[in-house]
Amino acid sequence: MGLSQSPWKALSVLMVTGVATTGGLYWSGSTLAIPRTGQLIAQAEPEDAQAQPEDAQPEPEDAQPIPKPSGHTENIKSLAISPDGQILVSGGDDQSINIWDLASGELVSTISSEKWVYDIAMSPDGSTIASGSSDQTIKIWDLYTGELIQTFAGHTDNVIAVAFSPDGQTLVSGSWDKTIRVWDLRTGELIRTLSGHPGLVVSLAISSDGSLIASGDSEGVVNVWNMESDDPLYTLTGHSTWARSLAFSPDDQTLVSSSLDNKDTIKVWNLRTGKLRRTISSGDWVYSIAFSGDGKTLIGGTNRKTLKSWDLKTGELKGNFIGHEEPIYDIVLSPDGQSLASGGGDRQVKVWEVSPLAETISGEEEVALLKTLTGHTEGVRAVAISPDGETIVSGSLDKTLKTWNLNTGDLLKTLEGHEQPIWAVAISPDGETIASGSLDKTLKTWDLNTGELLNTFDEHEGAILAVTFSPDGKNIVSGSSDKTIKIWDLETGELQNTLEGNTDSIVSLTISEDGQNLVSGSDEIIKIWDLETGELQNTLTGHANYVASLAINANPDAFFEGLGPRLVTTGDEKIRIWNLNTGEPQDIMEGHWSRVYSLALSSNGQTLVSGGVDKNIKLWNLSTGVLQDIFPGHDAWIYSLAISSDGQTLVSGSLDKTIKIWQMPQRF
Q: Where does 8-122 show beta strands of DSSP type E?
């Protein structure tokens, strides 16, 4: 299904004072991220935040910059919001607790701690802060003066989690010494010590009525305790390692736990019975989890730098929201349930509107999986769609080509002739000819309708890893592991030119719509050639791996008037955008956590699709660089993608031996 993405983009960096807009409240003295739909309200940056980008909009002449307050200099590990929603507190590895005014974003004060701050909690009356630290103590601080009021000692290892009871009379702490301790805040005395965890205690939560404590440990065990008892009410097992975060539902009927186990799981528990209701595969490590105010949605901060949301009832992923540059270690919901703060390894605190996080794209905008095609006995390395949108061609590591009816999914023909795995496939602009490149060092052409082998081109000395047709259909271009590019006359089969100069295999090729520019990808290097003369025009560098896929924006005027055509490239986890004419870098899009193997552009140049090692297909708005949708479906690496000429259909090929046909969202 399609997933709601955070469609904000930081358009400028401004120093402003108390500017309120329909998109939300922006902070003073920090980066002003202007959201397109107001989903990201504000962000506070670290002390060494970067200077304004070159394209930042200028300040009004009468605006007076406010000095930027110092923020965190190390990971932010914990957040808390005051009961009135006016103060946000953050703690981290820099041994500091920062107190922020949520209305202005101003850093009000900083409390210095002698050790790392693992967790913080706000008292129900909003007057004090509790912090758990690597010094094995819990400290109580006055929120307004920063004065240390009280220290609770007794744990024999790091204090990782702290929580106040709803009535403000009790403090609960969890430690790596495998115990939970319950303290009387009025007297400072230890009420009880709860033992029984096999691993280090790493998470705590208290129910809204104050009757239950939940604790999670490094062995994946979750215990639920009655506040007045020394023995667990339930011991919940199922996680294989750290039960990193816990949350009670607003009605206290459900407990949710997230784990760092290999299955990346979230477990939903029935607190009336102690039984598991469901397991949600998160796809990422979820460091912190919370319920939406209505209890219908789970929101998690992940190691992949995103906020994710899931439907509690169905377990379906509803949204994936981009904003942080490093893992998100903690999230906290405001008392009114309208906003959420997140903090993590990038040392930034970001504040979000909750409603977009809890919404799902309406049905007419969802990406729909229409069909899964099976028949190949090895991974599918390449796919292409005929210009009329009727036929799919797939090339596989099983050495065969297959043609399929795109509308019905029926297998039409299997073409055999290559002696080694097929690595690349292309269809001529008139839709009559298939070109295939193989590890057997040959380029073959086939009649698309009959399946007849038309020609074999065998002058390469290495595997053929990339093929493409010129826009006029007169030429085929092939790239090889022999480090050369060859240009062939399709009609006569004659070799017209050989382009040399690369130091490694040619793994990707594309040609501009006007037929003037040929672009090749190799070992971290992109070369732009004059197709007619073979002259090298430009060399681009920036990727950290083989440039596995290339695409040229086919309709630049619609969204990039005056900028010229754009070249889109990938090969590592980043997607880079360049000005094709000048070679100047224009943007970097990040969202994949590992290598991207394939790109496809819609014919209108608006939508980019990417896929790779993380098994997810991602849809991007190319004009803004914003990630719009993520949809899973394949069980292994995605090697190839193709979009139909009408923009309605996407085809993906994977190492899992399948081809999937997807209906694109109408908004694209």
A: 20-21, 24-25, 40-44, 76-81, 87-92, 96-101, 107-112, 117-122
Kindly state the tokens that stand for 576.
Answer: 């880079």
Residue 388: φ, ψ to 5°:
-85, 0
On the question of pLDDT at 259 being above 60, the answer is: yes
β strands within 303-461, DSSP E: 306-311, 317-322, 328-333, 339-344, 349-353, 368-373, 380-385, 391-396, 401-405, 411-415, 422-427, 433-438, 443-447, 453-457
Instruction: Give domain limits for the chain.
Output: 368-663
Percent of the chain with pLDDT over 90: 60
In 3D space, the residue among 281, 291, 343 whose CA is nearest the CA of residue 75 turns out to be 343
Give the model confidence (pLDDT) of 575-597 as tens digits. 999 888 888 888 888 878 789 99
Residues 6+ away with beta carbon under 8 Å from 225:
180, 194, 212, 213, 214, 215, 231, 232, 233
Task: Please tell me the predicted confidence (pLDDT) of residue 320.
Answer: 75
Q: How confident is the model at residue 360 (pLDDT cuts 50, 70, 90)?
A: low
E strand or H helix that includes residue 356: helix 354-358
**What confidence tens digit (pLDDT) does each residue in 46-91 have?**
444 433 333 333 332 232 223 333 578 888 999 999 999 999 999 9
Q: DSSP labels for 519-569?
A: EEE-EEEEEEEETTT--EEEEEEEEEEE--EEEE-S-HHHH-TTT--EEEE
pLDDT of amino acid 123 = 96
Long-range contacts of 390-394 (CB under 8 A, 24+ apart): 391/427, 391/431, 391/448, 392/642, 392/651, 392/659, 392/661, 393/425, 393/427, 393/434, 393/448, 394/425, 394/653, 394/659
**Predicted TM-score of the model (pTM):** 0.55
Cα(27)–Cα(236) distance, integer angstroms: 42
Burial of 275 (0-12, 13-18, 19+ CB in 10 A): exposed
Residue 394: its pLDDT value, please?
98
pLDDT score at 308: 87
Which CATH superfamily groups domain 368-663? YVTN repeat-like/Quinoprotein amine dehydrogenase (2.130.10.10)
Structure tokens at 466: 């990339």
Tell me the three-class secondary structure of 115-167, residue by residue: CCEEEEEECCCCCEEEEEECCCEEEEEECCCCCEEEEEECCCCCEEEEEECCC
CA distances from 275 to 236, 269, 288, 376, 580 (A): 8, 6, 22, 42, 58
